[in-house]
Amino acid sequence: MPTDDESERGTPILARRCAAEGLGTAFLLAAIVGSGIMGERLAGGNVAVALLANTLATGAALVALILTFGPVSGAHFNPAVTLAVACESGLAWTDVPAYLAGQIVGAFAGVGIADLMFDLPAFSPSQHARHGPAQLLSEFVATFGLLTVIWATSRLRSATTVPFAVGAYITAAYWFTASTSFANPAVTVARAASDTFAGISPYDVPGFVVAQLLGAGGATALMAWLVPSLPRVARRVIARGIERAPARGARS
């Protein structure tokens, strides 16, 4: 049974929100890893073509998944986003562990399913090295930009623009960052368990995660200064999802 507070605000109960986070993150990882495998197999050794295929599938999947699960959980699919939203009072801190657990479990499920769909072992440690200052700076920039796009579009534009802005940004960031823009701790950790085109060596995961969290924190702090109403925006748009437009003639 939902609480009185949840009933009043129209917010789904925590179990449903966490299930949405897990399912959405699983589909996201399946899109990232699966398109990477498919692209590499069909590209005939042309890494640029494989990356383009990986990029387009990921950006399109993000738009579709945020539109699908946004009204349920806010469609974070990303621990950095969840923590940033909680810092701005958009999500209760007591709900954060459940969100993070759903995202991480979903991420590993998506990786395993993607690998199995291409007749590969469900999980295998990645040998894809992604280390060095340039990679870490790339992850800081990628995540800083992602949170900036989320906060700015949700405050200054219609909430329905957020999925398209996020998908467009990640599509671009794949190409302007040396790391191909992981920008997501759950995605990073799970991709270490896939020895495929989209993988990352487990040894490089901690540095990526730290850079991502710093980027998310920096962007949230900056946008809180640029957009003073950010906490109110976080509660209305991010945590509660993309609200459906009221029916014609309904009271606003």
Structural account:
This protein is mainly α and 252 residues long. It has a single domain, classed as Glycerol uptake facilitator protein (Up-down Bundle). Helix content is 68%, strand content 0%. It is built from ten helices and no strands. The radius of gyration is 18 Å and the shape is globular. The N terminus and C terminus are likely disordered.
Overall morphology: globular
**Helix and strand sequence:** HHHHHHHHHH
Q: Give the CATH class.
A: Mainly Alpha
| Mean pLDDT rating | 89
Count of β-strands: 0
Question: Gyration radius, to the nearest Å?
Answer: 18 Å
Give me the number of helical elements: 10
CATH superfamily: Glycerol uptake facilitator protein
Do you know the CATH architecture?
A: Up-down Bundle
Largest sheet: none
Uncertain regions: pLDDT < 50 for 5+ in a row? 1-8, 237-252
Level of helix content? 55-70%
